[in-house]
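idk why but the lab printer keeps eating my pages so im just putting this in chat instead. protein + zinc ion:
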Amino acid sequence: MSDVLTVQDGQVISMDYTLHVDGEVLDTSSGHEPLEFLQGAGNIIPGLEQELYGMAIGESKKVIVQPEDGYGVIDPDAFVDVPRDQFPDSIPMEVGVEIQVTDESGQPMMARIDMVGDDTVKLDFNHPLAGKELLFDVTVVGMRDATDEENEHGHSHNGHNH
Ligand code: ZN
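predcted complex ->
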């Protein structure tokens, strides 16, 4: 048995990370607690999870995740034209504005204004990071065996218990 712990399924991993998209820092654990997750349970995006196997504590890596292994490719069917007069005056009619709408079953959904026309507004229901290449700088800072309960639930129980 090797006494060097490396990332594998069933380990709770603590990881520092910085996410760059289009050359800008979009998200980072710097200044916060490291991200903690159960490896192999799909807690983090698949393209990143896949690259972590075999890493040791203290090891750093740059991981590039293509859209199909990240937040998906842009779905052309996720753009919807809505008559402009259906929007309340309180919503600014500007490209990029995020709005919450309700679908037929009453579920809230987030959309962004993609285009403003004279009579219609085009809403984009894609994830904001759909179609984007993600560049992660990650450092594994800790790992431990998951408990039976964590494995059963498919997530880490640090800081919460459900
Ligand atoms: Zn749980």
